[in-house]
């Protein structure tokens, strides 16, 4: 399917045959897939379809962003992706009844991530190659950090909107271009000798890494999943501080200084504040103001923990076995 999609997007002209070939390939891919989280073809295809809504996608010829056939095909994959996650993730039972209970439930859900096995292992066992590989894995999302969550701002009202804007404003550097978190991460990549072009390493990362980013894009682009996007952001912020502390230490252990560790150190400080904003002001207010979104909010939080946990487990399993976590090793010159 991904090959058929790429052929269509890089072609000089839209063709009925190309769309028909893609639709048939989609049918086959969905029929054969046993697990969308680990399906390399479908996750890459979904990533490329979402890439049309970001920028720039320089390889794309023509205006495909809102093509109804591609939106329809994307929707079919999203339906399977969402259905699988709803069947596999666990929500609090019973669901919280108000904003205060919602915040407490989120802290309880995210507490296990306070001992992040992947981050702790990397801090103790970091090698130069593993650190580079880690940054490559993280680059798929982090070079456009905050963007998919931001899509929910116009879909919110009142107190929840104000809280999300406050969180996202920090992610974008509070108006200072050199403090935008994605730019700080790009600087980290440059200073360790990696290419900081978005998606430069797309061919190297596995489906589990793409699924993490695809999940946020799906939540952010679909208005009916705005509650899930809020829940995802909350869980994302509430599980950031301690892992980033360990990641920063991993780089320091190898002799790197602030020009490389700034990104991780910044998140130790910023996300300690963000987790309170996300749990109490964002989620708490949204549950109080729109209680019908409570289930979706906790679905988004649970899906974040589940999908990101799976991606981290895949990396850690590979590293502990002495293997690369990438599909193919990083090409070095």
CATH class term of the largest domain? Mainly Alpha
Mean pLDDT: 94
At the fourth CATH level, what is the homologous superfamily of the largest domain?
Answer: Heme oxygenase-like
> Spans with pLDDT under 50 lasting ≥5 residues?
none
Total helices: the number is 15
Using the CA coordinates, give the radius of gyration: 20 Å
Largest sheet: none
Using the alpha-carbon principal axes, give the shape.
globular
Known CATH architecture of the largest domain = Up-down Bundle
Number of strands: 0
Compressed to H and E, one letter per element, the order equals HHHHHHHHHHHHHHH
Task: Give a structural overview.
Helix 11 crosses helix 12 and helix 12 packs across helix 15. This protein has helices spanning about 1-10, 15-30, 40-50, 70-90, 100-110, 115-125, 130-140, 145-150, 160-170, 180-190, 205-220, 225-240, 240-255, 260-290, 295-320. By secondary structure, it is mainly alpha-helical. It contains 15 helices and no strands. It has two domains: about 1-90, no CATH class; about 100-320, Heme Oxygenase, Chain A. The radius of gyration is 20 Å and the shape is globular. The mean pLDDT is about 95.
């Amino acid at each position: 399917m991904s090959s058929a999609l790429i052929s269509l997007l890089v072609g000089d002209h839209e063709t009925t045959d190309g769309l028909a070939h893609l639709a048939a390939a989609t049918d086959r891919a969905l029929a054969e897939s046993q697990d969308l989280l680990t399906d390399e073809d479908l996750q890459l295809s979904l990533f490329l379809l979402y890439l049309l809504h970001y920028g720039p996608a320089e390889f794309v010829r023509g205006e495909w962003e809102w093509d109804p056939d591609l939106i329809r095909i994307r929707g079919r994959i999203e339906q399977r992706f969402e259905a699988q996650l709803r069947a596999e993730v666990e929500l609090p039972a019973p669901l919280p009844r108000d904003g205060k209970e919602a915040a407490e439930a989120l802290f309880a859900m995210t507490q296990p991530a306070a001992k992040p096995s992947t981050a702790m292992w990397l801090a103790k066992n970091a090698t130069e190659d593993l650190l580079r590989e880690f940054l490559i894995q993280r680059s798929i999302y982090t070079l456009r950090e905050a963007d998919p969550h931001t899509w929910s701002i116009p879909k919110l009202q009142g107190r929840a909107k104000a809280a999300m804007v406050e969180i996202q404003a920090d992610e974008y550097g509070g108006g200072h271009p050199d403090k935008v978190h994605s730019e700080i991460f790009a600087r980290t990549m440059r200073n360790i000798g990696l290419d900081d072009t978005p998606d430069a390493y797309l061919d190297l990362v596995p489906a589990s890494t793409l699924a993490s980013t695809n999940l946020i894009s799906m939540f952010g682009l679909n208005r009916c999943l705005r509650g899930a996007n809020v829940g995802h952001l909350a869980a994302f912020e509430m599980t950031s501080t301690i892992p980033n502390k360990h990641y920063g230490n991993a780089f320091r252990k190898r002799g790197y200084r602030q020009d490389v560790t700034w990104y991780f150190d910044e998140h130790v400080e910023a996300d300690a504040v963000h987790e309170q904003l996300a749990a109490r002001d964002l989620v708490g207010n949204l549950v109080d103001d729109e209680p019908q979104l409570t289930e979706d909010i906790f679905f988004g939080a649970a899906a974040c923990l589940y999908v990101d946990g799976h991606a981290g487990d895949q990396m850690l399993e590979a590293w502990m076995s002495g293997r690369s976590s990438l599909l193919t090793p990083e090409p070095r010159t």
